[in-house]
């Protein structure tokens, strides 16, 4: 296999990987504030894509306005979900909270199926599908645009966590009782993280909707997103970025080797292997937070 | 923390026959009445499990985090009943509780720990000058303000916990076992600083301590709590002279078991 082909696989894998990271960012934001992996993140992403389509096709909004409006709608939807479904769960066993997010996932998938049906719709962002050549390497324009959006969001969130509001959110994820003791509203902080994760769901819903069409399968991004988040350490934004790139590259390069041997379908096997080995060998992920032990 | 508070009449904090129930069944304190005068320093003494921490949590509102609630009696701050307001509302009123075991934000730097506690209403300039004031009181923190708080020594973490509380602009500072697990010279240093802040700003202090000897040196009054009840209330001098106190809390104060000193953290996280 020649080096140009290999680097093409790697670069495109990395771009796709950044889109996994974008999805995983939503998981990380919620995990950071409330220590629960949000199993409804895939459904939220799909819901966001459907809302964009509904606003632009059914109500005739221009696409940019539909996306902006969806961002606002989803932000408040995120706040609402936290307030209605999760706040009352505070202090319950983590598995119950996990089941609550699973229930939300099933609920959102069921409702979108009932309202919009099962046929796949296209997002039609207007990004050309003509190949883009970077030297000898062939790139996908939509993946490149998506990776750009992902990087912009990462930078925005990294900066946000240096602001006073951001520091307070990090304090909550460190110790919520201590946060209460100095007057931080833990409830508002957790709600804010749900709102932000829902905004991330809009970005990833629009981009993934463009790539693979808007239908129920969009919610299955959760599996790759969770793999990336776990590998990155669940509460680390930088970890999610690097883990996404890693998974994207390994998946793309690995499957092009393996598919010729096993005859296709090795992508999912690679993802599964990464998840299983992470949990077995490095449960804190690459950049997950250990409890600090002083000697 | 205005000096004129010192001259106001009436206590800044009064608790009147307060009872606390955990999980709606377990009675943790059974009618505690205490007062802290404006600008005064008062200690709550007593053995492990006597109800000292519960008393502080009833005042700061942190009981809710442990499924506890005030089932009888009332707590007044500055003359007003605080009822069942949220912890953050009480911090806004000027009550700040330095919880037991330091509990600094380990993955934040000391600087960020202080910033997290600054009220959002403070301007950036005020936050910076308040931080400078804290570093002035605790120069050791200033030297280490960019390393992670989790790597500070026990004494430094306690200083950070107190500094963090001071950032909330309290008028009543409640300290739960600030001497726990610290070397005696550090305890003396920290108590000296608390006394200085009390003197400079008229900050009222309610101190919970098992180390009665150190506590009675800096406070004016003390309450002795046993089995959830106040069993004695007197000036610090007279408590120090009291033979029962000497026997149970002063002489025996040093010989703590390893279990008390090594403070294992089995911390619960939000929603876990």
Automatic annotation (TrEMBL), chain A:
Pfam families: BPD_transp_2. Its main location: membrane. InterPro entries: ABC_transp_permease (IPR001851), BCAA_transport_permease (IPR052157). The keyword Transmembrane applies. The chain crosses the membrane at residues 12-31, 61-81, 93-117, 137-161, 226-249, 269-287. It is found in: Cell membrane. It is a multi-pass membrane protein. Keywords: Amino-acid transport, Cell membrane, Membrane, Transmembrane, Transmembrane helix, Transport. The keyword Zinc does not apply. Belongs to the binding-protein-dependent transport system permease family. LivHM subfamily. This is Branched-chain amino acid ABC transporter permease. It comes from Bradyrhizobium campsiandrae.
UniProtKB/TrEMBL annotation, chain B:
Gene3D superfamilies: P-loop containing nucleotide triphosphate hydrolases. GO terms for molecular function: ATP binding. InterPro entries: AAA+_ATPase (IPR003593), ABC_transporter-like_ATP-bd (IPR003439), ABC_transporter-like_CS (IPR017871), BCAA_Transport_ATP-bd_LivF (IPR052156), P-loop_NTPase (IPR027417). Residues 1-252 form the ABC transporter domain. The keyword Cell cycle does not apply. Involved in beta-(1-->2)glucan export. Transmembrane domains (TMD) form a pore in the inner membrane and the ATP-binding domain (NBD) is responsible for energy generation. Belongs to the ABC transporter superfamily. It comes from Bradyrhizobium campsiandrae. The keyword Transport applies. This is ABC transporter ATP-binding protein. It comes from the Bacteria. Keywords: Amino-acid transport, ATP-binding, Nucleotide-binding, Transport. CDD domains: ABC_TM1139_LivF_branched (cd03224).
């Amino acid at each position: 296999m020649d080096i140009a082909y290999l680097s093409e696989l790697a670069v495109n894998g990395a771009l796709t990987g950044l889109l996994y990271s974008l999805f995983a960012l939503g998981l990380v934001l919620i995990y950071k504030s409330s220590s629960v992996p949000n199993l409804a993140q895939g459904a939220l992403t799909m819901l966001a894509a459907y809302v964009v389509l509904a606003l632009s096709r059914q109500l005739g909004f221009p696409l940019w306005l539909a996306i902006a409006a969806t961002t606002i709608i989803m932000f408040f939807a995120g706040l609402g979900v936290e307030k209605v479904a999760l706040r009352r769960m505070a202090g319950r066993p983590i598995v119950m909270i996990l089941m609550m997010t699973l229930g939300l996932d099933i609920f959102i998938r069921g409702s979108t199926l009932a309202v919009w049906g099962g046929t796949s719709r296209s997002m039609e962002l207007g990004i050309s599908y003509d190949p883009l050549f970077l030297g000898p390497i062939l790139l996908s324009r939509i993946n490149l645009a998506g990776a750009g959006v992902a990087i912009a969001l990462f930078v925005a969130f990294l900066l946000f966590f240096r602001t006073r509001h951001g520091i307070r959110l990090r304090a909550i994820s460190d110790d919520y009782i201590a946060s209460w003791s100095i007057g931080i509203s833990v409830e508002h902080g957790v709600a804010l993280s749900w709102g932000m994760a829902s905004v991330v769901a809009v970005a990833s819903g629009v981009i993934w909707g463009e790539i693979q069409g808007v239908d129920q399968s969009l919610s299955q991004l959760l599996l790759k997103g969770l793999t990336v988040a776990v590998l990155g350490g669940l509460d680390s934004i930088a970890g999610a970025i690097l883990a996404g790139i890693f998974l994207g590259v390994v998946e793309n390069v690995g499957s092009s080797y393996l598919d010729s041997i096993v005859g296709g379908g090795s992508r999912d096997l690679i993802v599964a292997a990464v998840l299983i080995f992470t949990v077995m060998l490095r449960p804190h992920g690459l950049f997950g937070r250990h409890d600090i032990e002083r000697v | 923390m205005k000096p004129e508070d010192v001259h106001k009449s009436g206590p800044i904090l009064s608790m009147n026959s307060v009872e606390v129930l955990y999980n709606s069944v377990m009675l943790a304190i059974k009618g505690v009445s205490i007062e802290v005068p404006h600008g005064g320093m008062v200690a709550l003494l007593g053995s492990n499990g006597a109800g000292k921490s519960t008393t502080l949590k009833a005042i700061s509102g942190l009981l809710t985090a442990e499924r506890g609630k005030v089932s009888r009696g009332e707590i007044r701050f500055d003359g007003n009943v605080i009822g069942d307001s949220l912890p953050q509302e009480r911090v806004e009123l000027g009550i700040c509780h330095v919880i037991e075991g330091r509990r600094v934000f380990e993955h934040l730097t000391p600087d960020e720990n202080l910033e997290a506690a600054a009220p959002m209403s403070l301007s950036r300039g005020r936050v910076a000058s308040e931080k400078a004031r804290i570093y002035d009181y605790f120069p050791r923190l200033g030297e280490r303000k960019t390393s992670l708080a989790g790597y500070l020594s026990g004494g430094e973490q306690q200083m950070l916990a107190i500094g963090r509380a001071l950032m909330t602009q309290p008028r009543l500072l409640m300290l739960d076992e600030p001497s726990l697990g610290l070397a005696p010279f550090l305890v003396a240093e920290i108590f000296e600083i608390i006394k200085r802040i009390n003197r400079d700003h008229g900050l009222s202090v309610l101190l919970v301590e098992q180390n009665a000897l150190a506590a009675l040196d800096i406070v004016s009054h003390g309450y002795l709590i046993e089995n959830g009840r106040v069993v004695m209330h007197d000036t610090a001098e007279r408590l120090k002279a009291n033979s029962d106190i000497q026997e149970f809390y002063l002489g025996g104060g040093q010989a703590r078991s390893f279990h008390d000193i090594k403070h294992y953290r089995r911390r619960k996280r939000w929603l876990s």
